[in-house]
Amino acid sequence: MKVNKELLKGSTAVLVLTTLAKQDQYGYELIREIERQSEGVFAFKEGTLYPILHTLEAEGWVESYWQVHDGRKRKYYRITDKGKQHVKERKAEWQLFRTAVDRVIGEGGV
């Protein structure tokens, strides 16, 4: 089952930041890791991911650096302290949102 793009739209930044909080990664590696963790539900294309990364970098939530890996020069991304704080706030917001939606649609056990 595919997820509606409108549902995904507001979550892409926190998905990327949360993944980077675990380990610095380059773009393609990040795409694969998010797809793996979501069991294929979230499959970003490079044309989707890189604008997100550029926005996160402009916000100061991630920073990039170049590194040679297996003889190839790759641009890696890492989360900043400001990005970690942003993730913390978004996770709290998500928990509140998810709980409220579950209550309304009858999935919250209330």
Automatic annotation (TrEMBL):
Gene3D superfamilies: Winged helix-like DNA-binding domain superfamily/Winged helix DNA-binding domain (1.10.10.10)
PANTHER family the record matches: TRANSCRIPTIONAL REGULATOR YQJI
Highest rank taxon of the organism: Bacteria
Residues in Transcription regulator PadR N-terminal domain copies: 16-88
Protein's UniProt name: PadR family transcriptional regulator
